[in-house]
What we know:
Strand content: 35-45%
Amino acid sequence: MKKRLSKLAxxxxxxxxxxxxxxxxxxxxxxxxxxxxxTPVITVADNSVTxxxxxxGATIYYTTDGTDPTTASTKYTDAITLTQDITVKAFAVxxxxxxxxxxxxxxxxxxxxxxxxFKNGDIVVDTQTITSGTTATAPAAPxxxxxxxxxxxxxxxxxAAEAETSAITADVTYTAKWTATVYTITYELDDGTNWDGAPxxxxxxxxxxxxxxxxxxxxxxxxxxxxxxxxxxxxxxEKGTTGDITLYAKWDASLINLWTAATNQLAxxxxxxDSSLVDDATKVKALELTYKDYSYDSMTLNLLNPxxxxxxxxxxxxxxxxxxxxxxxxYITDDTHQNEHNFCNIAAGEENTxxxxxxxxxxxxxxxxxxxxxxxxxxxxIAFQNDTxxxxxxxxxxxx
Length: 400
């Protein structure tokens, strides 16, 4: 029993000595292991440098001159843009952690490429990839019907065909610039006088030009032609036409226009229908005569100049709404001298259509001098001879 108590006492004594030994150590004597921040990773791409660290919450400091960084160096927040070759060094810092090792990366600046595009409308003519800050060579001038090339344009900059551009530092598109080519119109009038306002030039963009009527003393106008042999008639220059044009006026000494509905004028060479005088593109409104209640409608047309009808036949282009017995044409030389002729009827099948009726020559006047033959006239009177006509319309009166 005494032996067992003696052993137990010895064990307690040893334990007490061990506790005392540990309780006497100071904090400086204890060793605590700290985590080390991860070494930053430096990445270079497209002239941009990024720095990352795997340690969450770590702060990165870096230099670009090859010196070792400290916490007084530049703190990394955004990617670094390269403008030249540099060496980047970086390390990471975090509280309760050991500072990371320093990472080093040589960063090479790569001169960028830019794309220069040349277009004609929606068509790409040429594409060039060049080093930024250098020039491109413009392609040859393209072609466009009716237009003259005025250069390759981008914003306020214009480059001539096959010329050098200025230094280019970003992608750019040049577009072909055009100006409408001006073409000349030449009139071969053979001593005639052109109509007022006849244009001397046009472009492909000009609205359609309706050719007017020139005049020539003693002649009637017989149309415009594209050639001096008068084989190809032309009445207008259509929008979209290109090229210089020469127009040849053809004259007819045998035809004398006494009156036309288109201009409502007398003794004017040539005529052209005016849509403002037309009912349905067929019936001309001007100079419409109507018989009603035994009252004979008539009209007197005073000529601009005396007309010699020697050896001439008079023609009337007219439109009748019902059968006409006879149309009386009276030629007047002065207040008392006149002669008359009954024109042919508008026969069945001709009504409501345009027909041409002709008269005769060498008619005998009546009035003061019943023996006079009227050849030079100053006026024309048109009237109905009897009561069988309802309405007549006239487009043109001429002698040939």
